[in-house]
Amino acid sequence: MNGNLWYEIARQRVADRQRDARQASTARRARAAARARRGSERAQQAAAAPVIPDYAHEMFTELGDAVPAARQGAGHGRETPKNQ
Q1: What CA–CA distance (Å, rounded) separates 2 from 10?
Q2: Does residue 35 belong to any structural domain of this protein?
Q3: Which residue has the higher pLDDT, 41 or 37?
Q4: For site-directed labelling of 58, which of 33, 38, 44, 75 has its Cα 20 to 30 A away?
Q5: DSSP letters for 37-71
Q6: pLDDT tens per residue across span 5-14
Q7: Domain that holds residue 35
């Protein structure tokens, strides 16, 4: 075969590989940009903080009393209630 033909075939193969590499790189960049957009959208959604009430009584309306009641039962040592 003609040596010039082999050279042309090799040149076309190199050009094909370079084209494929450019396309793959472009696709990777596009996927990375899409992931970054989705990530920033999720971060913005997750950053929403719960509403903090202005007054303490609003914090405990669903829970009842803000301070738990004393435990009933026999205490031992220093923790024994004085009225027993």
Answers
A1: 13
A2: yes
A3: 37
A4: 44
A5: HHHHHHHHHHTPPPPPPSSHHHHTTTTS-SSPPPP
A6: 989 999 999 9
A7: 1-48
